[in-house]
Amino acid sequence: xxxxxxxxxxxxxxxxxxFGTPTAAAATTPAGGTARTPxxxxxxxxxATLTHPRCDAALAQRVxxxxxxxxxxxxxxxRVEVARLxxxxxxxxxxxxxxxxxxxxxxRLGADAARRAGDLEADxxxxxAQLIGRDSQIADLRAQLAAQEAATPGLRxxxxxxxxxxxxxxxxxxxxxxxARARDDAERRFLHHDGGDEDSSARLDDTLGAADLxxxxxxxxxxxxxxxxxxxxxxxxxxxxxxxxxxxxxLERALQxxxxxxxxxxxx
Length: 268
Known about the structure:
Layout: H1 41-50, H2 57-151, H3 155-186, H4 203-210, E1 214-217, H5 223-236, E2 240-243, H6 248-267
Parallel strand pairs: 1-2
Helix pairs in contact: 4-5
């Protein structure tokens, strides 16, 4: 049974609507919409409903059941809001960490850029100082040259003449070296000795001594002449090419090898 304590409407008044639904006396907005329920009005409505003389046990049970359902709905909504708030807190913490990391990267990049800018500025000042020093040296040298030209008439022409003489001297030296090589090539001649068959074997030593290069056809001379040629070339260091096959092609190959060896020694 509902209690009669407290202030309640008259006994003849109909009971108000169930908790949470608007009554006939609910305030309306100027546009016709229902105004927001003031704080504490739902509690007052619940108390007025439960304490009304016409509130029997069934109505009270219904009202309390709806209140219980509202409590469940509010609890579920609160849990959703709490979970959402926790998610927002975690997201905020992650974004805060990312922001801190980005700020640290920006700080490091700024420090590196400032250091590079300082290094570049130092290099620029150093190069500028070197340029100023070089310009000063050039100006001093020009002043000295002007003073020497004023003190010595015709100095510039004499310097140009000296430079021309140096170039002519170098050119003359090149020509003399080329002439010496040409003269050396012109003085070379081919000496022949048959190893003692028709030519005197006594002339073999003289022929070997005058030779800069020895081409020995081993199949056309005696063993004694062969050993004399080999001993002479080993003792004097004279280059020697041994041709085993007595043919024109073998002799041409030997001469080509000799020419290549001579060109290589000149290039070295």
